[in-house]
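Quick one - first record:
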Amino acid sequence: MKSPAVRSSSPAIRPAGTAENASPIFSTPSRVFFRSKWNATTTLTVLYNRSHLISAEIFDNEAGLDPDYAVASRRPVSILLSNGRRIDAFVRVARPAGRDRLSDWTRQPEVFRYVEFGTSILIVNADHIVAFTEVPGP
């Protein structure tokens, strides 16, 4: 599977305006992943604890590659994250009939979840969700 391109909200992870490969975030069993930080004269390697990653923007259609994604119910939500950021977005609940409630989405085993935010797709670390509220649709 092709690794998604991700833009993190932390300028230390990437140069402004560029996307990086997110495979270490998703596929590594290690708690730590690395990113290179560079400028015109210096390249540094920075290690990050993946449990501290709160959210990141994905720039390819990796979420759409999941066969359930297109048929999953799309629910409007408001998510409050541990850093104080509130995201008014949509989540896709891809569960069998009768198990497709938002509460079922919150109990998924995956740590990183897809969230549709405007025209972007975010990955959100479920361990950093403080409040998760269903809101009226647009």
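second record:
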Amino acid sequence: MIGRKRTIFGVLLPICRAFHPTVGPTIRAIMSDIDGTLVHYAKDFAHHGVKLISSDEEALTATVEGPNGERRRCRLLPSATMGPACISERTIELVEALRARGVLFCVCTAARKSTMMRRLDMLPTCDAVVCEGGSRMVVNGALDIDFTKSFETICGPMSREVVGEDDRPEPLWQYYRLLQEKVSGLSLDANSYFGMFRASALGDETTEDALQEMISKIPHGISVNSNLGKTDFFPTLAGKANAVMHLQKKFGIDILETVCLFDDDNDLLMAEQCGVHLLPSLTSFSIKNAVSRNPSWFVPKAVGQGVFATEECLEKLLSRVMTEQKMQADVDLLLGEVKDEMSQQASLDKKTDRGGEVESR
């Protein structure tokens, strides 16, 4: 009998240790875009059968109704250029439930600083905030200088916040002024941006061609990305993907432990740094093509239906986290029981050996 127990525990112990301290790559962090992902605009979700039933821009509240008549209470978030957007109270609850289980929640957006600061109190609690296309990072309420100092020679220190693009001497702003001079009809936006700027040809083909010609000669150290039909320019060492990698290193989180919640082209590089992918909206052909190439990416049944799609993604994620944590607790319990049995068996063996020694004497 003793030999059998030794065999059983000898097999169980390495199995438990193989799964300890984690049962595979558990979810530890969410990197989420905002517009079209966490918050949604009526002009977008109306195409998918969702209605904005009521909206109070003074109280910053709204109610939306899904195709099946289900309603959600929402908060209205301000935007400098696109009008108010909806985030459901249920979305807030789901994110807070994930955070209560130890999952970090970080937002990564191209939004300008002023918009991000106005929105922050209406979003779920954020462990880190990345805005301006991945050039401004705030962790625990403070600017992350370790991240921004790597590219301040390109755009200037993020703490400077000089108002007026003409007063900024760095290469990013030199290029801004060059576009202003060389591309007739180009709309340039640097309002409350300090680590990036945005350009739009406003639908004019001649202006777009001239812009693309300038982009083909873009200076070293500056990168470009498409976002919401506009073109963003930012330091190459900034960007959402680099921000995510910095946060993973800062918090000791692996790619496979990271979730990307996203919807647009400018999120694809960020998505490459994550192991789990959730898409409440599919906003472009390139995103749809990426989904077809990656069957593990989760697209909800309510895709495009605004807050309902976001909730479906977060509910799936919460269910996974709860299952993983239960499995972890079960493995920990089993490992503890095996260790106790092994300890008790070792004590019995010692007593048996001592008894044998006494008898032989």
